[in-house]
Write a structure and sequence with these properties.
Layout lengths: L3 E7 L15 H5 L7 H17 L4 E4 L7 H6 L6 H11 L1 H8 L10 E4 L10 E4 L6 H4 L2 H12 L4 E3 L16 E4 L8 E6 L15 H10 L7 E5 L2 H6 L8 E4 L2 E5 L8 H15 L4 E5 L6 H7 L5 E7 L2 E9 H5 L1 H12 L5 E5 L2 H6 L7 E6 L1 H4 L10 H14 L12 H21 L4
Parallel strand pairs: 1-2, 4-5, 7-8, 10-11, 13-14
Antiparallel strand pairs: 1-15, 3-4, 6-7, 9-10, 12-13
Length: 441
């Protein structure tokens, strides 16, 4: 039985703005307060989905989560009419308004950690929704995400609630998880990357803990011999690599990482991982360490080279590996030279450059925007058909976005009741259109 990497992306919401809320996220902080373009952000995301679907990869779509979140504002003591609440929170604490209106759920790599059925000691594929407890604006996503994924994945995946425990159990989902397997997706190793523990980073709070990785591995029924825990290099975190997928990318039997992605104490774990992979797959795990002389840590984070999205398709028994890189990689001489070399060496069969400027300015590249779900064809058939990308759905979503999304938005605009009501109505329209897709309407 072979396994397919289905991709789940979320439409960027109409309240997309640059609030600078990302903990340790350099791009988020640099662009804080700038004017955003929600319409462009949503269309850029759809462009990437269309490209992935066009490559023959299963592409599923989630609607934006409802924002602003008035339940959050009420919980912090803001009362009155919606208009009064918005004006009051803008005056008293703009950060809370930004959190309540944040579209950070667009980065679905943080939605959950996924284990395919073939990696478990029996049972369905399973995913644990990320608690995202390191950040206020992201912590409000988990409950809604669980309901959505339960509806979307139906009986095909066991969707579990987020880990309890607050700060000691900080979990940011698949952005800090890698899975290695044979090309058919079988025989998987699961790698959890954490940032806490000595030596600690000096500037930024690690957003993933070792305890969370161990808890998920236990809960998912993973074989202990096939689970590995790597520590992220504190220099990478301090440089702005707030998630592992900012300094490392993986796909099947391939790991590409910056030389400062992992702390020195992880070397023995990587050696053990290579040995175990060889034993169960009977072929080597390909590990490419990119030196700073090829691409500095600063430039890796600036271009999001390692956050490129790798997808594979199989035609007539031949597997083709395509890497989707941000246009920032193409525009950066060293990063572009690196990806072209990898293509020439047949690490990748093709490279596509995608313009995700709005997401990048908020601190997320191509891989941040998708949750990868390895499933069999039978498991994929259980998913809700309403979320499956089609030409007709894509066209309708683009029409809604072009007609109803703003082209300019700043934080102060989110205190305008008309803008917020329009945003909530638009999010409902998008969700309704996705529901109609199941029936082909």
């Amino acid at each position: 039985m072979s396994f397919i990497d289905a991709q789940i992306d979320r439409i960027v919401g109409p309240t997309h703005h640059f609030g600078g809320l990302g903990v340790g996220n350099v791009a988020s902080q640099i662009h804080a307060g700038q004017v955003s373009n929600p319409q462009a952000a949503a269309l850029q995301g759809l462009d990437k989905m269309r490209l992935v679907a066009g490559l023959g990869v299963p592409q599923l779509i989630l609607p934006p989560q409802p924002r602003p979140d008035f339940h959050l504002l009420n919980a912090f003591g803001f009362t009155g009419t919606p208009e009064e609440i918005l004006k009051s929170v803008l005056n008293d604490d703009p950060m809370i308004l930004s959190a309540a209106a944040s579209c950070s759920a667009m980065w679905t790599a943080n939605a959950a950690t996924v284990t395919p059925s073939c990696d478990r000691v029996g049972g369905l594929p399973v995913m644990t929704v990320a608690n995202l407890s390191a950040s206020l604006h992201r912590s409000i996503e988990a409950a809604h995400t669980q309901r959505e994924l339960c509806t979307l994945l139906k009986n095909g995946v066991d969707v579990r609630e987020a880990l309890p425990g607050g700060a000691p159990m900080r979990d940011e989902g698949a952005a800090n998880h890698m899975r290695f397997s044979s090309p058919d997706g079988q025989s998987g190793l699961n790698v959890f990357v954490h940032g806490d523990g000595s030596p600690e980073p000096q500037c930024h709070w690690p957003r993933q803990t070792l305890a969370a990785g161990k808890a998920i591995a236990r809960s998912h029924g993973l074989r202990e011999c096939d689970v590995f825990h790597l520590k992220q290099h504190p220099e990478a975190i301090d440089a702005g690599a707030f998630h592992n997928d900012v300094v490392a990318m993986s796909h099947h039997d391939l790991l590409i990482h910056h030389e400062f992605a992992f702390a020195a104490e992880s070397c023995s774990e990587i050696v053990r991982m290579q040995s175990r992979f060889q034993d169960i797959v009977e072929s080597p795990l390909r590990i490419l360490s990119i030196r700073s002389s090829e691409l500095t840590l600063e430039d890796a984070i600036k271009t999001y080279f390692f956050n490129s999205q790798i997808v594979s398709t199989s035609v007539s028994g031949k597997t083709t590996l395509t890497v989707l890189c941000p246009v920032q990689v193409q525009r950066h001489p060293a990063a572009n030279e690196l990806v072209q070399r990898l293509c020439a060496e047949q690490v990748f069969d093709d490279v596509r450059f995608v313009d995700l400027g709005q997401s990048m300015d908020g601190g997320g590249g191509p891989a941040c925007l998708r949750l990868r779900v390895p499933v069999s064809e039978q498991e994929l058939a259980c998913f809700d058909g309403s979320a499956v990308w089609t030409d007709a759905l894509d066209s309708d979503l683009r029409d809604i976005i072009s007609d109803r999304y703003p082209c300019k938005l700043q934080l102060a605009d989110l205190a305008d009741i008309e803008i917020c009501q329009q945003a909530l109505e638009t999010q409902g329209v998008l969700a309704e259109r996705l529901m109609q897709n199941a029936t082909g309407a």
